[in-house]
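Why CYTH domain-containing protein? Reviewers of the renewal asked for a concrete example.
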Amino acid sequence: MKNEYESSFININENEIKEKLEAIGAKLIKPKKLQKRIIFKNNTTDESRSWVRLRDEGDKITLTLKQVLDSASIHGTKEIEIIVNNFNKTAELLKNSGLYQENYQ
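Here is what the prediction returned.
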C-alpha cells in the first residue's frame, strides 16, 4: 500500500490566492466538479480502521481501500486505488459482496 498525504489550509482568501497564481501564469487544469462518493465498510472494518471508497470525479471513477495504521503519523494512512468504469455497478458489486454503505455524499 502507498502512503496517503493530505493537508488543510485554513484562513486563506481563495480569490486572493487565485489572483496571485494567475498573475504568475498559473492555469487551472481541472475545474471544480460535482463528485459522488460512497463509503463502504463491513462489520470488522471499524476495529481495523479501514474502509472502501467509491468516487466519481466526473472524468474518472476510482475504488480505493483506505487504512489508518497510525493516526498520529504522517505516514500512518495507506491506500490502494484502482480505476473502475461504472459507478453504479461497482456500488452494486460491493453491496453484494457483504459490505454495507455507510454514507453517500
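The mean pLDDT is 89. This is the kind of structural detail the renewal will allow us to pursue systematically.
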